[in-house]
Amino acid sequence: MIVGQHQRHFVALLREHRGIVFKVAGLYSRSVADREDLVQEIGTQLWRSFGRYDAARGKFSTWMYRIALNVAISQARRWREADRLEPLEMHHLETVGGGESIREQDERLAALHAFIGQLDALNRALILLYLEDRSYAEMAEILGISETNVATKLGRIKQKLRGQMAGAATTGA
To answer: What topology does CATH give the domain 1-86?
Structure first.
C-alpha cells in the first residue's frame, strides 16, 4: 500500500515537471532515437533515486534537473567516446518571436545553434538553466559549483557569444 502511494506521488511529480526531462534530453541527444532512449534513461534514474529525494532539502525541480543533467552528460560522454556525437539540430531550439524577419531569425538561430553545439557538456547545461530563468543559486546547486563560478562561466559564455554573433553579422552581411 505504501509502495503504491510512493509510486503515485512520483508519477504526479514527474508529470508536473516532465518538461525538464524533455528539454534536457532534447539538448543532449542528436537523433529522435537517442532522445527517446535518453528520456527513458532519465526516467529510470529518477525513479531509482526517488527514495533519496528529500523535499525539506530542496525543490523537486532542482533535484530533477540535477539527476537529468547528470544522466544526459554521462550519456553524451559515452556517445562522444563512440564517435556518435552529431551537430545540434535546429529542431532542438525553440523559436522566440521578435521584431526580426523570419530570415533574420533563422540566421541568428543558426548562429546560436552553432555556438551552443560547440559548448562542452557543463556549459551547455549552464545555458539551458540560464534560458530557463533559473537563479544563480539554483544553477549552482544543480550543477554542484559555486554561485561565483556560475556567474564567471555565464559571463565568459555571453562574451564569447557576443563576439561570435558580431563576427557572424560582419562576415554574413
So the answer is: Rna Polymerase Sigma Factor; Chain: A (1.10.1740)
DSSP assignment of 40-84: HHHHHHHHHHGGG--GGGS-HHHHHHHHHHHHHHHHHHHHHHTT-
Average pLDDT, the chain: 80
Distances in Å between the alpha carbon of 28 and those of 68, 76, 144?
10, 7, 19
Q: Alpha-carbon distance 90 to 108, whole Å?
A: 11
Percent of the chain predicted with pLDDT > 90: 32
Q: Which fold has domain 99-173?
A: Arc Repressor Mutant, subunit A (1.10.10)
The domain spans of the chain are 1-86, 99-173
pLDDT at position 106, please? 65
Q: What is the pTM of this model?
A: 0.61
